[in-house]
Amino acid sequence: MPGLSEATSEGSRRAAADGLSGATEERGSIAREEAAHSPEATGNGARGSAAREGAAPEAPRSEREAPGIPRLTPDEVVARLRDGMTIGIGGWGSRRKPMALVRAILRSPLRDLTIVAYAGPDVGLLAASGQARRIVTGFASLDSIALEPHFRNARQAGTVELTELDEGMLHWGLLAAAHRLPFLPIRAGLGSDVMRVNPQLRTVRSPYADGEELVAMPALRLDAALVHMNRADAAGNGQYLGPDPYFDDLFCLAAGQAYLSCEQVVPALAGPPQSLLVNRAMVHGVCETPGGAHFTACPPDYGRDEEFQRRYAASAASPQAWQEFRERYLSGDEAAYQKAVAAGDPS
Amino acid sequence: MSGTGEPARADVCVLACARAWHGDGAILASPMGLIPTLGARLARATFAPDLLLTDGEAHLLDSGGNVEGWLPYRQVFTMVAAGRRHVMMGAAQIDSRGNQNISCIGPWERPKAQLLGVRGAPGNTVNHATSYWVPRHSRRVFTGQVDMVCGVGTDRGAVDLRVVVTNLAVLDFGGPGRVMRLVSAHPDVEVALVLRETGFDLVVPAEVPVTPLPSPAELEIIARLDPEGQRHREVP
Q1: CA torsion sign, A1 to A91 to A277 to A113?
Q2: d(Cα A88, Cα A136) in Å, to the nearest integer?
Q3: Which residue among A67, A105, A289, B144 is buried most deeply as judged by most CB within 10 Å?
Q4: Which contiguous run of DSSP H or E holds residue A217?
């Protein structure tokens, strides 16, 4: 796939040669090892033990701290990312997007990113900032505003590349990557111009009696994944409390390193076990960011901030409007953003 | 507006959309847009009681508005692949074989207008029943060749293209070689107008029927589903 072959390490260049997606396992495992030895990891143990309250008998503190993953700030998450990476972003459209992490990317010098997403304002912002070189998606929408205006501008100006896939193909590519398969067969795409605009896509014929020809959807391997949940514990288990898990677990499993931001880190996760979408084996860092999905929807904690989203959409009207929006909301840190949002409409 | 006894154009369109799901049984109806949504809900309230409908999020709602099931996006994709779905999508462009474009206008490499993207249209059209809703029937939409084939047409492997409902008419793919054919024109719509607003040759039967009018009972249901009359803003 064009642009899925652009990650930075040797492994990805090898993968690129066969025309499939290119993020690497090696990068992820290195990052994970670094993470385990980072200073943040040692600060994690106390919170980790709280999560296991009530478990008897008590293990020695050092043992309980051992599997901990680091608690990170959004900027620390972004410090672990590199130019040219393929980054998957969870959520869907303008729903439960890890916006605090996206905002941290906007503050960083990261560039040449390939973004894989069911695209919403995450993609719009990174297209507007020029940090996304390529988008891999089936759409870009703000849901209540049908078209993502910054993505639209970038496409029409020719400033961002696109790998355009059917929504189901994107799902299948993530599933293939999560399952460490080179591809998965799917009907979606056959006969459509998705095949024309992605000339690297191949079909495969069923080896069984049906002999059906299917699209061989290549694995969408990711260097990193960013997802936002309602709750997490310090160990890195994440819980969604809204109606839809979207594909956040697959994004995490498809990635060499996965970062989970959440509304709240709690001592012990409560509620139905099937709401525990991601577990600590899928996650390399946890980040508590109250309001971290703003302005996208994060039910039941909060709905979409429609008024703010309209303001965001209006910022695509001209370069000056974008500059003003960026200065007002995106020039400081996450706390400054939340404060500016709380201050209300300036106009 | 209704009230004079004569159904409004929007009401005719709602019923025409509803009839697309006639006889579908217990499958997922996925209407895109207001009038198709009213159509699907009217269909379930009358002749297609087994249809499954979502709230636009992950809940399946029964006819009383109660949650009867859970259908997150991943499960929608499974229903798509299983073929247990009938979608009614929009179309920025559609050609005589039903190839549909919702992605972009102009060259794909650098479009004049970026629209939605292909969304699920390629997968929908090769997996299950598909219909279209076009609120403004024009030559810009009904065009000889679409700029980006999203939903595939009858010449590219569509499994089950049903109807195209517009503000002027109902069409299907029953013409020779499965090309688009005029099924009916809405009340007070001249066939000549439909032909003028279509950018390719339509197959036209010798006698063009008038699109069926909703009954008083159906009008009552439509009014109940859309008490503020938003449908009249989509189709005046």
Answers
A1: positive
A2: 9
A3: A105
A4: strand A213-218
**For A95, nearest residue in chain B (alpha carbons):** B57
Closest by Cβ to A190, choosing from B58, B74, B157? B157
Please report, as a single letter, which amino acid is at residue B224. R
Place domain A10-47+69-342 in its CATH homologous superfamily: Glutaconate Coenzyme A-transferase (3.40.1080.10)
Cα-to-chain-centroid distance, residue A123:
10
Cα torsion A178, A181, A187, A192: sign: positive
Helix A167-178 / helix B73-82 crossing angle, nearest 10 deg: 110
Q: Which of A95, A166, A196, A201 would you mutate first to test chain B, the one with the most B CBs within 10 A?
A: A166
Domain extents for chain A? Answer: 10-47+69-342
CA separation for the pair B22, A191 (Å, rounded): 28
Domains in chain B (CATH in brackets) are 9-234 (3.40.1080.10)
- Report d(CA A115, CA A129) in Å as an integer: 13
Contact: A192, B103; criterion CB under 8 Å: no
Q: The tokens of A54 are what?
A: 């009530």
- Give pLDDT tens digits for B113-165: 999 999 999 999 999 999 999 999 999 999 999 999 999 999 999 999 999 99
Handedness of CA B57, B62, B67, B73 (dihedral sign): negative
Provide the ipTM.
Answer: 0.96
Query: Which residue's entry shows tokens 């009907």?
Result: A187
Please check whether residue B148 touches A, CB under 8 A. yes
